[in-house]
Inverse folding.
């Protein structure tokens, strides 16, 4: 911990001393900034990746807007003269401590390295492709990268109406065919807001494939309808086959007394997956030795998808101070498919004995959101910029998995967060985040000391009430 504090102090000294030395504009701009000629903060609120109204308009126009950058144009051709690319590099130091576990500090340099290819591919169409990875070994520099991508197409019918189509495979939410909320998804990463987000806690931002259509009326909001399904993580392809879940997303974007306000609603229902759902996978029985954890599907598995959520954001200024207020609520009823799989949404966590969700654990988890259980969560956070280039935020998140069985208690987690960001440049941040997470688990499956047999049955309960504390110091640069 002492090393962590010394490192934090060093970065704070760097931030303060650099205020008089560094320019107020970005020294290097990412792909979209190169295409449009606009500074990062023209589109982003406070700092990347959160959007404000101008950035939302760029999204609705399918990344097609250009500035002074030359275009190559001909019949049915309109592309930038150069391929616009960016790279995102993150380095971090993480200190963890908690009940029943030893304190540990880890350094990841780089922690993440992401390559972006993005922008205009036609008069009405744009694309966003990200090769992502880092400490999980899934980097664009490795032999088997897993791309995250989205394709957007939009057309203005008249002065009032705009319609579009989106196709995506991403970990940013099933609504990513068109999503502009800063409450969850990758835009909720400002000041690590996703750490407390109810929608994130419900699993809405698991890797998902989707195709959706949307319609927007003036600047007042839009409605999206999409077919969605869990996406395979091990193969890099979607495990969809013949069945999809369905998403309805409605978003109002309003200006209320100069406050940029967004109110959204989402509803996901249905069952997605391949095959007839006969209870087996290509690797054996669904609950057998090679089942993948985290409710991610394997072949011939049908996955229930059931989630309702509400998100609200308010962004504006109080005097010279910018303020962002974000809140969300999520509800996921337990479901069990004919394959024996639980709801894709609403599982609160994976017991320590089962690995991270990317390996081959030994059996099923009682914490899946199956029939008879209900997942509920809500969160609230406030993020302010009291002086230029310094951001501060506080947040609270609550989530609960309720079991209807008599004598089985609820799993509950409360997260308190304090975060700070110094904007070294518009495209480079220094971040410090502290999360205090308290969990109550009457089953003893999630706490330190829990032990399981080869079939995944709990043999020795772990701690039933415990608190984990995580402090992360990171530097992120977009080039």
């Amino acid at each position: 911990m002492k090393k962590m504090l010394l490192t934090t102090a060093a970065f704070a000294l760097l931030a303060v001393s650099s205020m008089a030395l560094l320019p107020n504009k970005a020294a290097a701009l990412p792909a979209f900034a190169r295409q449009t000629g606009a500074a990062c903060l023209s589109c982003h609120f406070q700092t990347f990746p959160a959007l404000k109204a101008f950035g939302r308009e760029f999204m609705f126009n399918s990344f097609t807007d250009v500035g002074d950058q030359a275009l190559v144009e001909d019949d049915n051709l309109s592309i930038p003269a150069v391929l616009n690319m960016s790279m995102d590099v993150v380095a971090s130091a993480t200190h963890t401590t908690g009940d029943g576990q030893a304190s540990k500090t880890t350094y990841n340099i780089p922690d993440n390295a992401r390559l972006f290819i993005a922008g205009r591919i036609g008069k009405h169409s744009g694309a966003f492709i990200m090769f992502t990875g880092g400490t999980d070994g899934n980097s664009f520099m490795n032999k088997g990268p897993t791309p995250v991508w989205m394709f957007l197409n939009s057309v203005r019918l008249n002065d009032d109406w705009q319609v579009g189509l989106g196709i995506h495979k991403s970990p940013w939410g099933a609504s990513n065919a068109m999503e502009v909320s800063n409450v969850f998804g990758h835009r909720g990463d400002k000041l690590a807001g996703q750490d407390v987000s109810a929608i994130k806690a419900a699993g809405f931002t698991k890797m998902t494939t989707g195709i959706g259509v949307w319609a927007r009326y003036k600047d007042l909001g839009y409605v999206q309808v999409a077919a969605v399904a869990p996406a395979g993580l091990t193969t890099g392809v979607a495990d969809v086959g013949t069945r999809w879940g369905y998403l309805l997303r409605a978003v109002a974007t309003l200006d209320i007394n100069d406050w940029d306000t967004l109110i959204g609603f989402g509803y996901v229902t249905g069952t997605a997956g391949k095959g007839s759902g006969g209870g087996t996978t290509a690797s054996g029985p669904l609950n057998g030795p090679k089942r993948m954890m985290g409710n991610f599907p394997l072949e011939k598995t049908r996955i229930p998808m059931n989630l309702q959520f509400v998100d609200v954001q308010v962004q504006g200024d109080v005097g010279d101070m910018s303020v962002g207020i974000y809140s969300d609520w999520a509800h996921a009823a337990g479901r069990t498919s004919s394959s024996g799989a639980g709801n894709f949404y609403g599982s609160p966590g994976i017991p320590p004995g089962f690995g991270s969700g990317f390996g081959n654990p030994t059996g099923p988890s009682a914490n899946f959101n199956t029939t008879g259980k209900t997942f509920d969560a809500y969160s609230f956070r406030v993020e302010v910029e009291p002086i230029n280039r310094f951001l501060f935020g506080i947040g609270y998140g609550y989530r609960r998995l309720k079991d209807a069985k008599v004598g089985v208690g609820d799993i509950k987690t409360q997260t308190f967060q304090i975060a700070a960001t110094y904007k070294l440049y518009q495209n480079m941040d220094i971040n410090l985040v502290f999360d205090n997470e308290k969990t109550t688990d009457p089953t003893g499956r999630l706490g330190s000391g829990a032990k399981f047999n080869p079939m995944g049955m709990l043999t020795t309960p772990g701690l039933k009430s415990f608190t984990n504390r995580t402090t992360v110091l990171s530097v992120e640069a977009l080039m």
Q: What stands out?
A: Residues 2-478 form a domain with the Porin fold (CATH 2.40.160.10). The longest strand covers residues 101-120. The chain has a mean pLDDT of 79. The chain has one domain: 2-478.
